[in-house]
Design a protein that fits this description.
By secondary structure, the protein is mainly alpha-helical. Helices cover 49% and strands 11% of the residues. Helix 2 links the parallel strand 1 and strand 2. Its cofactor is FAD.
């Protein structure tokens, strides 16, 4: 389901939703830490997650990896 569809559905039901935004870490330890946190945060049932794209695409590959992992949680 697309994010906009989730928002519209929640609005029709007068339901509050929230999301999490993540920034791609700069170290391998940071990546491991982020994945552990994401697994804990998914238990709160956010409507969606957002990953910041690095300036000039500097974190493009990592951003895509994080996005893929998030979609499969």
């Amino acid at each position: 389901m697309k994010v906009i569809e989730k928002i519209r559905e929640a609005a029709k039901e007068d339901r509050v939703i929230f999301s999490f935004e993540y920034f791609p870490p700069k170290t391998e330890d940071g990546v491991d830490n982020l994945f552990e946190r994401m697994e804990r945060m998914v238990a709160h049932n956010p409507a969606f997650g957002d990953i910041t794209w690095g300036a000039g695409g500097s974190t493009a590959d990592l951003t895509l990896d994080i996005s893929n992992r998030m979609q499969n949680m």
